[in-house]
């Protein structure tokens, strides 16, 4: 079966074709980052309009690359995300499924992220603990099997990607600044500033990043007032990254130990962060799986593979789904309808 995956939950239009025998055969991605950068964040209406412009050409491109006229099934992101953006993917997926008379599989965006490492040749096996770290989510999830998820901890305020982006903005690194901040941090001293590691002394597995964000803001404001921000930027970036990564790793290791986990999966945009990848692998006494960096951020391939794994619960076209909010814990393993 060749499954077409469509992702339009936020500001990337992602399309991919996953073959249940050959793996990923074609993919295409259009990032809207430049469109939103001038506003310093994603503007939902602009996102929807750009998905409308890009989606069909990207689907044509992926089918042409794979040498196919159609797919055997279609998977699309049904939520959570921006409703207008989701509607574009959902509407087109339903239309195509109607025309092709093929099965349709609505996918939870976060399930897509946490299955992304399965696109790699060395794939993790269930059960595992997943650390989901993106611009919108920071979550530790116990993954028993496909569709059986228990959220062990999540952020009480900002997502970690959001904290990276806000710190990057303070340092004048543009939007979204996570990757630029990580690059700048490579030339900085991560011990230059003693920034808080929020929540580490509290019980449970939740995160909080607003205190860290405020602490960095105070450092930046002081440096600005003294006219010395420019030469200190790399040290501030490195110290922030170190505090954020230390916090993620400490919580993850604690949860993995409590759950007796031998496998950890890291997914979501912040999963592309090199320090997080290197330090977690070094500190965990088990296996850590990461998707390649380009599959950490939003993409169509993760939706296509989730669809391939969920073929058994495919639906017929006609029920356009687009859910702004949707808990991962409400999902169930695939069963034929
Ligand atoms: O998963 P994703 O593409 O979109 C959401 O669903 O949110 O994640 C995007 C987030 C942004 O906040 C971005 O700054 C962050 O991931 N990010 C990074 C890195 N690459 C992307 N943060 C830190 N280090 C990176 N290398
Ligand atoms: Zn995402």
Instruction: List segments where confidence is low: pLDDT < 50 over at least 5 consecutive residues.
Output: none
Biggest sheet strand order reads: 3-2-1-4-5
Strand fraction: 15-25%
Radius of gyration: 20 Å
Topology overview:
Elements: E1 2-7, E2 12-19, E3 23-31, H1 33-37, H2 44-66, E4 73-79, H3 83-100, E5 104-108, H4 109-115, E6 128-133, E7 138-145, E8 148-154, H5 160-170, H6 178-185, H7 210-225, H8 229-259, E9 263-267, H9 274-283, E10 287-289, H10 293-296, H11 300-309
Parallel strand pairs: 1-4, 4-5, 6-9, 9-10
Antiparallel strand pairs: 1-2, 2-3, 6-7, 7-8
Helix pairs in contact: 2-3, 4-11, 5-7, 5-8, 6-8, 7-8, 8-9
The structure holds 5'-O-[(R)-(carboxyoxy)(hydroxy)phosphoryl]adenosine and zinc ion (ZN).
Can you give keywords for this protein?
alpha/beta; 11 helices; binds zinc ion; binds 5'-O-[(R)-(carboxyoxy)(hydroxy)phosphoryl]adenosine; five-stranded mixed beta sheet; 337 residues
Can you offer a commentary on this structure?
There is one protein chain. By secondary structure, the protein is an alpha/beta fold. It contains eleven helices and ten strands. The strands form two sheets. The protein has a five-stranded mixed sheet with strand order 3-2-1-4-5, with helices on both faces. Helix 4 (109-115) packs across helix 11, helix 6 packs across helix 8 and helix 7 (210-225) runs antiparallel to helix 8 (229-259). 51% of the residues are buried. The mean pLDDT is 96. Bound molecules: 5'-O-[(R)-(carboxyoxy)(hydroxy)phosphoryl]adenosine and zinc ion. Zinc ion binds at residues 109, 113, 134, 268, 298.
């Amino acid at each position: 079966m060749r499954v077409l995956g469509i992702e339009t939950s936020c500001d990337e239009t992602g399309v991919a074709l996953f073959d249940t025998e050959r793996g990923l055969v074609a993919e295409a991605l259009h990032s809207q980052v430049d469109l939103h950068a001038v506003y310093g964040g994603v503007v939902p209406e602009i996102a929807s309009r750009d998905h409308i412009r890009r989606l069909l050409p990207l689907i044509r491109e992926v089918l042409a690359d794979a040498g196919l006229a159609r797919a055997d099934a279609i998977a699309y992101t049904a939520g959570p995300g921006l409703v207008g953006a989701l509607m574009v993917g959902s509407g087109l997926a339903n239309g195509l499924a109607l025309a092709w008379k093929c099965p349709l599989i609505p996918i939870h965006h976060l399930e897509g992220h946490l299955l992304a490492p399965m696109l790699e040749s060395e794939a993790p096996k269930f059960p595992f603990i997943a650390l989901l770290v993106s611009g919108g989510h920071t979550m530790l999830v116990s993954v028993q099997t496909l569709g059986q998820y228990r959220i062990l901890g999540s952020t009480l305020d900002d997502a970690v990607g959001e904290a990276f982006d806000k710190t990057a903005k303070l340092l004048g690194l543009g939007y979204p600044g996570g990757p630029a901040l990580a690059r700048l941090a490579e030339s900085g001293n991560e011990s230059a500033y003693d920034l808080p590691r929020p929540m580490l002394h509290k019980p449970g597995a939740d995160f909080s990043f607003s205190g860290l964000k405020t602490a960095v803001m105070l450092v930046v404001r002081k440096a600005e007032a003294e006219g010395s921000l420019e030469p200190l930027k790399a040290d501030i970036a490195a110290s922030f990254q170190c505090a954020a990564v230390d916090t993620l790793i400490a919580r993850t290791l604690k949860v993995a130990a409590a759950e007796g986990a031998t496998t950890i999966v890291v997914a979501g945009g912040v999963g592309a962060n090199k320090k997080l990848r290197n330090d977690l692998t070094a500190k965990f006494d088990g296996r850590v799986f990461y998707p390649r960096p380009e599959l950490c951020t939003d993409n169509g391939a993760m939706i296509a593979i989730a669809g391939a794994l969920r073929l058994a619960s495919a639906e017929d076209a006609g029920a356009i789904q687009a859910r702004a909010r949707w808990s991962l814990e409400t999902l169930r393993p695939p069963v034929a309808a």
